[in-house]
Each structure stands twice: as C-alpha cells, then as structure tokens.
Write a structure and sequence with these properties.
- Four copies of one chain form a homotetramer.
- Helix content of chain A is 40%, strand content 16%.
- The model of chain A has no long low-confidence stretch (mean pLDDT 94).
- In chain A, strands 1, 2, 3, 4, 5 and 6 form a six-stranded parallel β-sheet that branches.
- The first copy, chain A, is built from six helices and six strands, in the order E-H-E-H-H-E-H-E-H-E-E-H.
- With 192 residues, chain A is of the alpha/beta class.
- Chains in contact: A-B, A-C, A-D, B-C, B-D, C-D.
- The A-D interface holds A 120-122, 124-125, 128, 148, 150 and D 120-122, 124-125, 128, 148, 150.
C-alpha cells in the first residue's frame, strides 16, 4: 500500500515441503500477475500450535509478523495442498492464530485460492473448507475462476516447474480477476 | 486390548487450553462410560507442524506416541472446540501426521465426536469437517447421537465442571452407543 | 429497480408448509427492513423437478416467472429450514432450474440467508451448503450477521409469530447490513 | 431379500435426462457386479416437491413405491451428477420425502455413491453433501473406493456407453466392496 500504483500480494503456501507443487504454483502465479502487481511469499513455518494460554502470556513473534504481512498487503493468495480431505493443519493453525489478533488482518481483504494435488479432485474439498473459514474472517474471497490443479505429476516438469499450458492460462486469468477485485474493493472503500 | 473384558478409549481434546470446556466435557464422558470402559486422555501438545521433509528425516516421537496410543485403544473419543468454522489447526495437524504412519492407527477404529462452544451452533461445522477427514482415514465414526454443546457458559459451573443434566444424559447415551459400536466391530472382525 | 429510491427484495421460503416458521420469519424480516426497502415474497411451489430434456422442450413458466422476480429485485432474502442436514430439495431444485437460464438472475445479486429450526443447530448445515451453491451462481452473499434461529418452538408464539426479542434484533441488523451491501454493489456497478 | 443367496441393489440416478452419463454409469455398475448381485433401477421422476401439508393429507404413491423398493433391497447404489456444487434438487427432494416415512428405509442400509461430470472435480462436492445427508438417515455409506468420474466426455463413447477402462475397473472394485459391506452388515444383524 506504499505505492498507490503498485499492488502487493502476500502469498501463503499450505505445504512446508521445499519441493512442494503448491510452492511452485505460487511462484508461477507471481510471474503471471498483471503489470504493477507483485507477490511476496510469507510463511507459517515458525508459528507454534495455537494455545489460548500461550496467547495470554505473549503473542508469538511469527504470528505478529505474518499478521503484519497480510495487513499491509493489498490481497492474499493461498496455494495449498489438501491433506486428508481438508485444509492442512499447519495452514489452519496459522489462520487460528491470525483470527485472534486485535486488528484482524483478513477483514475485507481480497483473497484468491488455488491448490495442486496428485489426485483427480485437485484440492476441491480443501478449497470449500477454506472458503468457509475465510468467510468467518470477513475476507473478500474471489469467487471465480477456481483453480483445481489435479493430477499434478503430469503438469510439472522434472525440476518441479508448472508447465501445463491450460493451467498457466487459468492462473493468469485468476490473477487478472484478483486485480479487478482489489481495484473494486479500493473503489468502494475510497482507498483507490 | 490387553484385558478382553476391558475397553480402552483414547481421548483427544481439540483445545490445548488448561481450563478448556472441551477438556472438562471429555472428563465427564470418562465418568459416564459404561462399566468396563476406561478413558485415557492423550494429547498432541508436542507435535510440530507437519512437514514432509521432516517426516523423511525422522518421525517426531510425539507422533509415534500418539499413534501407539490410538492403535492400542479400542476406540477414540474426540472432544473439540470449533475454531473459525472448522477443526482446530492443532488437532488437524496431529491427524495429518498420524495419517502418514505406515500402519495407519485410525483404520477401522471406532471414533465418537463431541464438541462444546460458547456460541449457539455448538461446533456443528467442526464436526462435519472432522467426519469427512476421519472418513478418509477409514475410521468407523459413530453416527448418533451427535453431541453439540452450545452456549457452553450456561452448562459448566464456576469450576468449569459440566453440570447441565440434559447434556450429561446425551453424553452417557453416546458412550453406550460407542460401546455397542466397539462390540459390533469386534464381532465382525473376530476380535471379540 | 423502477424507483431508484426504493429497494425491492425478493423473498424465498424454503418450506412450502403454510404454517412454516421460516415463512413467518421471512415476514418478520419484511417488517424489520429499513425505510425504503420492501419485501415481495416469491415461491417455487409450481416448479417441477428439473429435467434437461424438459428444459430443451420448453422452459416451465414458473421458472421464468421466478427468474424474472429475482432479476428485477435489488436483492434476495432466503429463509429456509434444514432438511436432512442440508438444503430442502424443493429449494435446491428451484435453484437448479434458475441456474440454467440464459440470463442467470443471481449473477452479482446481493443475497441474505436466514433459517429457523426446532433443533439446536438452527440450520447451520443448510446455510453453508446454500452459500457454496450461491457462490457457484456468482451471487454476492452477505457474510454477516448470520442468523440461526434454533429451538424455534420457544421463539414463535401460538399464532406462529416470531416474538423472540434477540432474534428480531438480529434480523433487523441483517436487513440493515443487506441494505448496505445493495448500496455498495450499486455504487461499484454505477447503478446507484 | 427373497432369495438369501441373491443380493438386490436398488439403483438411483440423480439425473432425469434420458441420455444421462450417470444413468449409463449406473448400468455399467449393474454389469460389473459380482455374481449373485443384481441391480434394479428405481426412480424419483413421479415424486412431487415436498410439502408437509401434502404429507399430512396423503403420502404420494411414488414416495411409498420408492420407499418399498429401498426397504426391500439389500443395498442402494446412487449415481448422480453435481448441480450447482451440490446434490441435484430432485434427488434431495426424494430423500426428503423418504426420510419422513414412518419406517425409514435407509436405516442401516448399505449405500454406495458414484458420480459423473463433465468438469474436472467429478462430483466431489455433491458426494460429500450426500454422505452427510445419508449419515442423518442412519445409512451405512461405503467409505471406499470413492468414484469421481471427471471429464466424462472423454470416458463415454458416442452411444453414451462408459468405455474408460480405469473407471470400469474402479466401479467393479466398488461393487465388490459393496458386496462385502452387505455381507458384513448381514452378519452383524444376524440376517445372513
């Protein structure tokens, strides 16, 4: 929000694996963003398991840092695998902490969701749970296009780079739609 | 499973808070179990955020311990709050680790679910997500009675003890139904 | 949309029962709307079970009429019971027909959801399924306040009128929030 | 249940379209059933939209007939498209009627679910909603294998026949698993 012409997007990958398909898809999205829109990848790797008693003693610095990254961004892009038919526990745990912050960073924030999986359903179960969770947080979740990257093995090359043309096209479309949602929200809120 | 006449139930509380309503409800369930059925409370407090790279290096001992506790129990009872319209990240994260164990401990395991919340919906959103997750793990989730402890403040006393008679009656009914499910599964599997 | 100062809201009740709690709650909402906002109750009572072959032969007039009512309204208010843990089939069937209309009437339309039930969960399961369905239809579903009228018997009087003060307060708040959402959408779309 | 050696499966197609992919997949399942297991396709085509007032006046004969077909079968196989991210309204409406029958036909009944769709997600959203609905009805829903027939156009031939080998293999596996579930339930209930 520093340069009114630039749009900053905080990226969150639901997997902590270094060679994650979803991390790679997130990077592809960063490269497919419209001009003037930049991706900054954030992480929940240092965030401990949520405990209300610990919150009362002191907020973990990793929670405050991620909260600031989201609050300062114009939008959030979450790219996540599906674990056991739902949202990865680590990602959900980060959202549980963030939801308790006195100044809730997702409130009114445009959010886009993508997911890659080796199976055919392509993280659909994860995405609908995540949409409901973000509804509770008052986020402005982008409705469409939805991006389900199923059968991921066939769509990434040996270096783990996303190379499937159809998928890349959809991701570019989603980034354009996310830009439109950001501009729209800024217009409504008088920030644009 | 050591004493064929005794049934051991591993209890999991979805909240790490010491004074959690759900921890208290879990203890109430332990006291309302039929004769010969015992509750042993387990925990995910030491389990780190799931990372496939860490799994490849070495399984965390807390994961192995919880996996053993569940594998050796005749059933599992999960009592959890709802965080942000779904399963607490810490509980989901524990399930994500457990699901990767070579010998998956939830397979065919009878599981009962309860939840307490201060709001009116009483953890219903959490419970249906949890049922879907446990379906993926091939658990035998008890269908009914479902237990939604809404408006929890009015149902626990000042020491945090569950005192609402209707709720206690439902929990006793669920424990009886869980015993029946365990006996039934043992009969089918020739273990009884 | 005829009088720019007036806001028309098409109301849909998920139950066809004459003495339905939800019909009564819908009427209460109509009376609690801010000045200049009017409720017109529509219905799916004449809509047959969806069949693509029938659609190809001819659109049922009841579908066209409901589609027009929604297209011409500034917003939609759906008040529905929960049947078997989800959206009543009759309501879902109406949405299935409407979704096929060449000019899809829910696209961009502000929608608010309420529900009354005799049980404690107050239609929460129905509401989250309905939100996902309306997401597919590109509707602008109001995020909050959510209204779950649980234990309905205690909140309606002998004539079936909604008399619970807390619930009436929440409904009034939701109508105010709906008006704000309508004005906001009109501002964005240049229609206001 | 007339011949103890024969297993009768009532088949329900969620689409009323004559040339439905799901009707075709249902027929394929009938041919892939183990010896001694037979499919009888039932339908909800004559069932009106649910109305409690109509129920009080008289049960529609089509509801009673479908209820009998299910009550007398050893299992139910539902093969359905996904409409607007959930269960087709017509199918849900039939379940809404059936759930009110004094002798609820789904209670304890083994049920298997399949679905075909032209999109990539292959009816996953429909299937999880349907599982929750059937849980409420106390059905014994088969956990696995799940069958999501995505990108249906490529898997059916010009006459609408399911020809994809991988899919046919999965369907055969599901029918074998359904037979095992039926036998298991019969053993537990002393009916086998």
């Amino acid at each position: 929000m520093t340069d009114p012409g630039q749009l900053e997007v905080a990226g969150l990958c639901g997997s902590l694996r270094a060679a994650s398909y979803n991390r790679s898809a997130l990077q592809a999205a960063g490269q497919l963003m419209p001009a003037g829109m930049n991706l900054r990848v954030a992480s929940f790797v240092e965030i401990p398991i949520y405990c209300a008693d610990e919150q009362e003693r002191a907020w973990p610095s990793a929670v405050l840092a991620l909260g600031d990254a989201i609050a300062q961004a114009d939008a959030v892009l979450i790219c996540s695998p599906e674990y056991n038919f739902s949202v990865p526990g680590g990602l959900k745990n980060a959202l549980d902490w963030l939801s308790r912050l006195p100044r809730q960073p997702f409130k009114g924030k445009p959010v886009a969701i993508m997911g890659a999986a080796t199976g055919p359903v392509g993280t659909a179960r994860m995405q609908y749970d995540l949409r409901r969770i973000l509804q509770f947080l008052d986020a402005q979740v982008l409705l469409k296009p939805e991006i389900f990257i199923g059968n991921a093995k066939a769509k990434f090359d040996d270096e783990g780079k996303l190379v499937d043309e159809t998928t890349l096209k959809f991701i570019g479309d989603q980034m354009t739609a996310l830009e439109r949602l950001i501009r729209r929200e800024q217009a409504v809120n008088g920030a644009g």
